Please model this.
Amino acid sequence: MQTFAAASLILAFAAGLLGAAEPGQPGKPIALAALEPSERAARMQDDLQAVARYRAGLLATIAAAEARPDLFPMEKPAERHVLTAQARRDLSSLWQSHLDYLFALDSVGHYYRDYWKLKNPAEREDAFLITYAAFLAQMRGATDFIALAEIDPTLEVVLNEPTPDAGLPAKQYARVKFRFLNVACETEAGALWTVAQFVRGTRQPQLRAEIQEDSDVLQRAGFKRTFLTLANGVKILQAGAFAAWFPLQTGVAEWMGDTRVRRNGSSLVSQEQIAAMIGRLEPADVMLERREWFLSNVGLPGYWPHAAIYIGTADERAKYFADAAVADWVRAQGRLDGDFEALLRSHAPKAYLDSGTADALGHSPRVLEAMSEGVVFTSLEHSAATDAIALLRPRLSKVEKARAILRAFGYAGLPYDFNFDFQTDSAIVCSELVVKSFDPSEGYRGLKLPVVQVLGRPTTAANEIARQFDAQCGTPAQQFDLLLFLDGYEKEGRAVEAGLDVFRSSWKRPKWHILIQGAAEGG
Model:
């Protein structure tokens, strides 16, 4: 039997006919093999974890659909019917999450399509496993969803309707069906499976197990494993496999992969702009953040994927909360000296210690946020290094803000909730940290933030905070004031200050708004 190394020689020869992209040239991908070894190792490690998470999220959308027989009946309805407004919203939310995971898997798998160009056998094996696992997960998830949706003809009509605020054009469901229910897709799967027979290493056992599971599920569903010769498998893959199918813009997957590499460690919001924020921010301000091509929040809808709380430094908090009403409230909590900082330290000693520990660059932590690493304290220089950011000030008293910060410190150290489940406190997602820190309770007005259904679970997406701001702005119900909105422009490589009206409409932008964005004005 030929070895994977021999297969790679054949693949490399075929790849040479295609030409190589120029590293660093905007709009063109930086090839995986062209990355520095340390960059490539870090990127591959991230994407190995990403494929597993996105696959789990995609399967969660199927489980959520199966748990809603009112939306996805087990038998074909006797007659055509009209979905209620709430049912349409729930269906749209589930469909958007499903597409989000499909696109994320597509973008990751697409970047590794030239795995055979890697000279290191271990890297080559891992890269192939990433692209194969991403493809199979997409195929399994899409076909499972289609099988559920096809029972009721009404769903096909609704799913094919355009969703402008999500950036979804009409006939989106039809496009997914065309992508995954055709002979070309089965041929592509057969080509991948053929090459996989020559990748008999032992690396990434968990990912291999998931590949095997998805392959078995697809086979039971009727998809045939057509064994080809290795040469034929290579030709099929070279002929067009892994072409980005998501109907946004030609080359989106390449552009995304390129931008993630070229702008690793950089942002459209400059450090000068961040430094200017320090004098404007106060403890308990809320930050909405967006990083282009940053897929950590895949599954949550909307333009704004991330939220964080500005807590300031100990000195900043001491100065801000030097207030008689705050001191009285602290005494009511059993701290007779009325010292809010002392209350924080006794309430969450480890969190308090972490909040005062400078990062590797010497920057003081000023932000508390939930990221993939968990609920952690970060510097403003790190957290605000985004591609768009909005600073919001709650219309609350200093006592209410102190209570919110005390609650927030209690969540520090918890893991990130990749299931986006607000019903548990054992893990926290970014916007959940904001919601639970400001959650109204007896004697505490707090903030009433909107809750929506995502994958059948109650969730407050960061984008919903912006949506609510727009709805409440200028009314007695308004809960925030806008301090600053820096709007990023990818094509110009900068962020510019934008006004209230621009921010109010930002929640309506599609998730991949940057692809249709025009030029910045002013700044």
Notes: The chain is about 45% helix and 10% strand. The radius of gyration is 25 Å.
